[in-house]
Design a protein that fits this description.
Largest sheet: 5 strands, antiparallel
CATH superfamily of the largest domain: YVTN repeat-like/Quinoprotein amine dehydrogenase
CATH class of the largest domain: Mainly Beta
Number of strands: 30
Shape: globular
Radius of gyration: 22 Å
Structural class: mainly beta
Distance between the termini: 80 Å
Number of helices: 3
Strand content: 35-45%
């Protein structure tokens, strides 16, 4: 073969390789079911693992503050690192099929539609692959850093993905290029640094996102600039919230605060209502906050005392937010959750457990707490069902607990999991019949996380009560 033919063959091979690589990384790529049902070693409940790390993959669930299932209840959205790199993925709970639902990665939070089969994500804006919540999806996010690490500067884009259309084409075997499924909603300029810490409004028409930079220097009324604090030297302000209209791309001011904002979430039942945190990496002077999208109503959500350690809040119903009231225990060096700089906070002398506060009446009730005999010591990440019937938590032994808000009964759903690369982060489905967690129970290295669904026992779901439920 002469040199010209050799060059032609090489070029043709390169073109074919590029085409194959593009198809390999395409939105809509599928993986076969990895579904496994494993009896919990302690409770015996059937745990449905929808992913497996046996092949060296990495995955983790969306943070507990956000919707996990698509609005039709059939697919769970999660973050994954596979052959195509860090991407958002979806797994069909019934069939186990896994589908790639982003093309060029994402930054920060994945926002599944509340009323539509859409997914809203933030990307780096330059066409490059985005980061996961605090780095690559599946990496252990440092507690307190919040969803979306502070990445390098640059413009950001908000992208809306039509999941219904994508899933239909996957089923028909007619997947098209990504442009057929995604729409550019708007661009956030580099002068308004954003990192993907965001929430989708109840009507799926706005996103609210955290920003930094010089435009946050002018604080909203009543706010004062705060310094970094605690063992991780975090929490300093200023920072702010902005909104984007997903139809027009218009960006509007909401609020600037004097501290570091973390965990931006919305009320899926009440348009324009936002809940967010003062993130310090440990005990904050005032952890939980709420504000409306027009900037009105900025206030502490649960006004906490200096001796309380409040954390991991999540909106669970039209009027309710659940949060953890943690404890510091004996301040054992190296024990997860121990914060020597906050020795006066979260001690056993004061109430701990799962707190639920009403956004309207501002009444707080303790729904339950990890039993005294459990080595898990304290509730850590918390959840609740939208019907007001259940609360749930994980603890420092990676156990999963269920609390009956009607009669106060406590039930262990899953015994100690492997420590894993991150916490369990429980989240209820819309019907309040099961909980999604991320678990390392079946991982060979006891670190890799898998997407897992924990059912509520029929004996619990079939309970009847002589007194009427409060909600």
């Amino acid at each position: 073969m002469n040199s010209r033919k050799i060059k032609t063959a090489v070029c043709l091979a390169a073109v074919m390789l590029l085409a194959a690589s593009a198809a390999f990384a395409q939105m809509g790529r599928t993986w076969p079911s990895e579904k496994k049902i494993v009896a919990d070693p302690v409770t015996g409940l059937p745990l449905t693992f929808l992913t497996s790390t046996d092949g060296g993959y990495s995955q983790s669930k969306i943070y507990q503050t956000h919707r996990q299932w698509t609005v039709d209840g059939k697919w769970l959205i999660f973050r994954g690192v596979r052959e195509t790199g860090p991407q958002a993925l979806a797994v069909n709970e019934e069939t186990g099929q896994i589908v790639q639902v982003t093309e060029s990665g994402f930054m920060g939070m994945l926002c599944a539609g509340n009323k539509t089969m859409k997914l809203v994500v933030m990307t780096g804006g330059g066409g490059g692959r985005g980061r996961g919540e605090t780095g690559a999806p599946g990496a252990a996010p440092a507690e307190g850093r919040g969803p979306g690490g502070r990445g390098p500067g640059g413009p950001r884009q908000i992208i809306e993905i039509d999941l219904a259309k994508l899933f239909a084409d996957v089923a028909a075997g007619t997947v098209k290029p990504a442009a057929n499924y995604q729409r550019l909603c708007g661009t956030i300029p580099a002068t308004l640094p954003a990192d993907g810490n965001m929430g989708l409004d109840a009507n799926d028409d706005f996103v609210y996102f955290r920003v930094g930079g010089p435009e946050t220097a002018q604080l909203s009324e009543g706010q004062t600039l705060q310094k970094a604090m605690g063992p991780r030297n975090m929490g300093a302000g200023p920072s702010g919230l902005r909104s984007m209209n997903l139809k027009t791309g218009e960006i509007k001011f909401i609020v600037n605060v004097g501290f570091q904002i973390g965990h931006v979430q919305t009320n899926p039942w009440n348009p324009g209502e936002i809940v967010f945190a003062w993130e310090t990496g440990g005990k904050a002077p005032q952890r939980t906050w709420t504000v409306m999208a027009d900037g009105s109503g900025l206030r502490p959500l649960y006004p906490e005392a200096p001796y309380e350690w409040i954390t991991h809040e999540a909106v669970i119903g039209k009027d309710e937010v659940v949060f953890a009231m943690c404890e510091n225990g004996r301040l054992i060096p190296g024990t997860p959750g121990q914060e020597p700089n906050y020795a006066s906070a979260g001690t056993w002398e004061h109430p701990t457990g799962v707190g639920v506060i009403n956004l309207r009446t501002r009444q707080m009730r303790i729904a339950g707490q990890v039993p005294l005999w459990s080595g898990g010591r304290s509730d850590w990440h918390v959840a609740g069902s939208a019907d007001g019937r259940w609360a749930a938590s994980d603890d420092f032994k990676y156990e999963v607990w269920l609390y009956d808000r009607h009669n106060g009964e406590t039930t262990m759903l899953a015994g100690p999991q492997n420590v894993g690369a991150d916490h369990i982060h429980p989240t209820f489905n819309a019907e309040g019949t099961k909980i999604e967690i991320q678990s390392a129970l079946i991982s060979k290295d006891k670190r890799g996380l898998n997407i897992c669904v924990v059912p509520l026992p029929k004996s619990v779901l079939n309970r009847t009560y002589s007194l009427k439920l409060a909600n």
